[in-house]
Amino acid sequence: MIMRILANDGIDKIAADELAARGFEIDRGHYAKEELKAQIKDFDVLIVRSATKVDQEIIDAAAQGDLRLIVRAGVGIDNIDAAYAQMRGIEVRNTPNASSDSVAELVLGHMFSLARFISIANVSMRDGKWNKKEYEGVELAGKTLGIIGFGRIGRSLAEKASALGMDVMFHDICVKNDEKFEYAEFDALIKNADFISVHTPFTGEALIGEAQFRKMKEGVFIINAARGNVIDEKALVDALNTDRVRGAGIDVFEKEPAVNLELVRHPKACVTPHIGAATREAQMRIGRETAETVLDFFDNIIDKAM
After folding, report:
1. Taking all residues of the chain, what is their mean pLDDT, rounded to a whole number?
2. Mean pLDDT, to the nearest integer, of 18-37?
3. Which position has the higher pLDDT, 144 or 256?
4. Is 171 a catalytic residue?
5. Which residue in 25, 185, 218, 256 is the catalytic one?
6. Cα(26)–Cα(18) distance, rounded to whole angstroms?
7. Is pTM beyond 0.85 here?
8. Pairing status of strand 91-94 against strand 69-72
9. One of 30, 49, 68, 274 is an active-site residue; which one?
């Protein structure tokens, strides 16, 4: 029996070749919601990135057919109703290891850009302006970086920032002790950090809003390459306007791609279109991890059946 995979948001060629070599048939077509509901029952595996939203309607349609596994080729699974899928007998997996370094490097890029006005200086020079005296920045070395969420990405960022001479503290609801880096309570971190980088999933409400911005150091830099809703964008714009926040590096937004233009066009913001994992190396690793996840899942089924 041929197992069918729908890679609705595309799939890395190496991963596709590996799966095809193991006898899987792969459909790389992209189906919008209504068409996806009609097609999904004919597949055993659904692979998505961030574009496809796998809600209860999609899952109900899938449960009427052969679908047994949904794989998010990426870190977060907030575009998948994972609890409902598992209730309907469909397993959900992701690829948590593949893009950590790529996201951490992008965060550092935003930090450098904000600290040294790289983004806005580039724009102003293209407009024929020579604003040398306006762009006195700060060094990263010696500054305190507060990392909220100390998973794979947070730790990768901590290692890289520490190598640059930054003092690193972290807050995580699960990790309280670390041999190398200092744990801090949430309020202590946001009060004392010169740079704050967020690496947590969205849990239903903003982690950082008006109240949290009021507690931060005046002139703090904040970076979000996690999920857009983790930071209240309106409160962030207000904090930028009042100089409470000196600069914001944003790779993720509350609504994508219909982003908040007031934030995107803010002169103190350095923005990118959700490209944290968009490196050749990360995409290759995501592809390999996706293929391994699918193969391990079905190998376990075979082992249990024997």
Report:
1. 94
2. 94
3. 144
4. no
5. 256
6. 11
7. yes
8. parallel
9. 274
